Amino acid sequence: MNPLLEDFNTAPFSKISSTDYKPAIKKAIEICKQEIQTIVSNPETPNFQNTTEALEFTGQKLGRITSIFFNLNSAETSEAIQKIALEISPWLSEFKNDMILNSALFIKVKSVYDVRETLNLDPEQSMLLEKQYKGFSRNGANLNDEDKGKLRKIDTELSRLSLQFGENVLADGNAFELHITHEKDLKGLPDGAKEAAILLAKNRNKEGWLITLDYPSYIPFVTYAENRELRKKISIAFGKKGFQNNENNNEKIVLNIVNSRHQRANLLGYETHAHFVLEERMAETPEKVLSFSNDLLRKAKPAALREFKQLESFAKKLDGIDQLQKWDSAFYSEKLKKEIFNLDQEILKPYFQLENVIEGVFIVANKLYDLTFEEVFTIEKYHEDVKTYHIKNTKGEFIAILYADFHPREGKRNGAWMTSYKSQQIKNNSNERPHISIVCNFTKPTETKPSLLTFNEVTTLFHEFGHALHGMLANTTYSSLSGTSVSWDFVELPSQILENWCYEKEALALFAKHYQTGEVIPMEYVNKIKESASFHEGMQTLRQLSFGLLDMAWHGGKTPKNILSVKEFEAEAFSETQLYPDVSENCMSTAFSHIFQGGYSAGYYSYKWAEILDADAFEYFQEKGIFNKEAANKFKEHILSKGGTEKPMVLYKRFRGKEPKPEALLKRAGLL
Predict the structure, then answer these.
(1) Is residue 529's pLDDT more than 90?
(2) pTM
């Protein structure tokens, strides 16, 4: 029997082999088609229960199987899994289109939607019905047969292209290694980074030290290595993923994706892909996003130019550098930060042992939301590095399962993310609790040191855990509205707000303890962390805005078919935000996975958008006290537990009592 087709609660990783996926997905698609056929052939008048709700509860087996598959394709992939992904993606895309373009099903959905005012629905039921109807109408249900055929073709192609894009980035990333055989070339590098480099070399049967493009290896090298030529070499390698003259080149794929998305939007009656996407976001229109971005740009650019000038003269004074380059950015920023604040990331790291930071984020969640975390060893996992936890509330009621996967390895993509293996929902009067996962890439322990995090990595862990809380504390009836199933420019609020606790003395005292002596992080370091939080905030804001504006340029333009050169188009999009000289061998777009592989197309602005929400929301916690129960309960009740059951601004105002204002962010960033 195929383990994926049996009923299971937690994912049965040890029983699954890669050959199980294709037959299981095929069968699950068949089951879902039968469920849909039952709705379509029901002779009763369509109503909320027999149509809207029935449709919501279809495809759950398929959802569980594909979540396992695609989560592993990100966290523990192999050639076999990548090959299967390319084969099954068109099936899933075709099945989704079969459903969306099933006119008999749409007629039923529409007939319930048309009488919605008479149905006496609660806000969550209304939202489900509206989302369901729009899921059809915004994806071609109102098109004629010929256009439906065109849409199917575009969707199948898009699903293939985005997978290929991601594989190419991963392949280029894995193909590069900087093999160092002379210790002098590591000058400036912290001991922990050197040890990690020895370990990498050992694992690949090499003498000396290995630096790769994985963040825990790459970031310390470009931040601390004094050998400017080697910084240049690895920085250029990092910047040319998907932009080399090899089989992993993504230039054509980028143009094909952008053009296909544009055609798709036009086919559905939208001016551009950005118009299509933003209709369902808090921001609503591309014009609003551009006005928001350009307004922030106006406020941040003078500060960014001042900061850049200061960095230039610092590098010139220190090392006689006449022209700052991208590979100098992290190196001189770190040195300048150390000089201004007398703060060295390396001094902080001993206070941030990974296990203590995990414990810290658990304590913060306990103080705010009454959650307890117990590591368990009975839940199957996909890799020995993964930790598994049972989460309960203080009454002892079961809340969620958490999988945590913290270290880089081959077959795992870079970066950090939260995902789920099972969504929360209430079905047959039973509140089914979620199975949530966070995945990060932190330095592995070495023979002499545990895994010690940079402060930046500490905030990353808190960020992903904020998303996890959104998933864990979900308490809605329908899984499609549960947890992080919210507007894309609202989804970053729970993650970004939790980062704020990393800067607070009261929170740091709970977990920032020296791994050897147990000494709590000294107050002077806490003050310096706070003081330095807005260091180079102008440049950081400019950088984030540049990515958002590049995304909008790709997806908000009227005629993408006229774009001939990815590199030239990108340079034009960056013209207002560029500080460093361009590097001809590099291109951001060909490895911009957020928008060409992930779900952030026409949505990258949402990081900054959510920063305004998070700064405004955290101001409320500061007024009340960062562990104030009233504030925490309101945030849990109106934001974390509600998912996408109502419009984001309605939920936000219920929590905060008013709409968010950008002043809190500008104040925090030192840009006012």
Answers:
(1) no
(2) 0.85
